[in-house]
Structure formats: structure tokens, C-alpha cells
Amino acid sequence: GDSWGIFTFLCAALCNLPALPALNCSEELGTSQSIQKTYDLTRYLEHQLRTLAGTYLNYLGPPFNEPDFNPPRLARAERVPSATVDLDLWRGLTDNARLAANYRAYSRLLCYLRALDGQAGTAELRHRLGHFCSSLQGLVLSIAGVMSSLGYPLPTGPAGGPPASPGVPAAPNDFLKKMDDFWLLKELQTWLWRSAKDFNRLKKKVPPAVVTLRLEAREF
């Protein structure tokens, strides 16, 4: 009697499942996944850069490829975005401000790296630089995705155009040109190290959300 009626009702409900309204996951889950993806990409780029930097510094030759080479930062190198901000000051910024700073920095660093790609003297080095530039472009886009998912506007200004360096002449000699390249790689290493920490903290602030289901109206 009653048991058979319940069974018949469940069967009918299962048969009609394809006609149920579409189900969507909450947007918070997408935000969490976007942050995790960006964090993973920074760690991958850190690993990739260790090999690339060693190869490029060997290409530059001594003293740039010597382990204890630690020159003072020249005024010309200031056009490269610096990551040497006090950590307490950096952590005191809002998430929006840190994300915007990362977005601007990697956009400019990417421009400089593409210039290196065109100047590298060996096919292998050009290939490695090209691959790294593609990965770094992916990081720029990934950061933009995180900012969008959190409701933050992207920084104004071009992201992929040539770096603005008004009043900065080309290096007058080969040594200073190599010094520019050295500082570019050094700053990029620091940015990636700090960005990995930034996104690790951010993903803890935006944990994976419990999937909530919303019924969308269906027109018949």
C-alpha cells in the first residue's frame, strides 16, 4: 500500500530529473579555484626561473654568473619594478592594492623579458625565454581573473605595451647592459617569491566555498 506508493513516486521523480531546471555553482567556488591556479602558477614560474636565470647568467659570463656577485643597484635599474618593499609595509596594503601592484609589475617585467628574448645570442636561450614569457603572460591574465572575481577593477594603463622609460637612455656599454639584465632577473625572482606568499595567504582568506545550488527559471 503506502510503501508501493512511495516507490512509485520516487521512480516518477527520477524519470523526470532531466526536465529539472539547470543548476549553477556559487561564484565563490570559482574565485577560490582562480586564486589556487594563480598560486600554482607563481610556484611553477619560480621553479622555471631558477633554470632560466642560471642559463642566462652563464650567457652573460663573469662576474654575473659568479654565486657571490651582489652589486649595488644602479640608478638605471630603477626602471625595473622593485619588489624590495618592506614586508610589514607590503602586508599592510589591502588585497586590492597588492593585486594591482602585482599586475602592473608583471606586465612591465614581461615587456623587458620580451626584449631580452629578441637579443639572446643562442637558439636554446631564445626558446627558453619565449616559453617563460608565455608562462608569465599567463600569470598576468590569471591575476586579472582573480581581481575580476573579487570585484576589483584592473589598474588603468596599458598592460602589454612597451615599457615606459622616459629619460632612460640605452646602456652606454656592454657591461651596463648586462647589469640591466642581471637586475631584471633578480627583481623577477623576488617578485615571484613574494607573490607566492601573497596568493597563499589570499587562498586561506577565501577558502573553497560550500557549493550552493540555485534554480534558474526555465522557459517552456
Cα distance, first to last residue?
35 Å
* Computed structural class: mainly alpha
Architecture per CATH nomenclature, i.e. the level-2 architecture: Up-down Bundle
Strand arrangement within the widest β-sheet reads 1-2
SSE pattern: HEHHHHHE
- Determine the fraction of residues in helical runs and give it as a percent range: 55-70%
CATH-assigned fold name: Growth Hormone, Chain: A
Protein model, in words:
By secondary structure, the chain is mostly helical. The chain has a single domain (34-163, 172-217), classed as Growth Hormone, Chain: A (Up-down Bundle), CATH 1.20.1250. Helices cover 62% and strands 2% of the residues. It has 6 helices and 2 strands. It has helices at 2-15, 27-60, 87-91, 95-119, 123-149, 174-205; strands at 23-24, 214-215. Strands 1-2 form a two-stranded antiparallel ribbon. Helix 2 packs antiparallel against helix 6 (174-205). The protein is globular, with a radius of gyration of 25 Å.
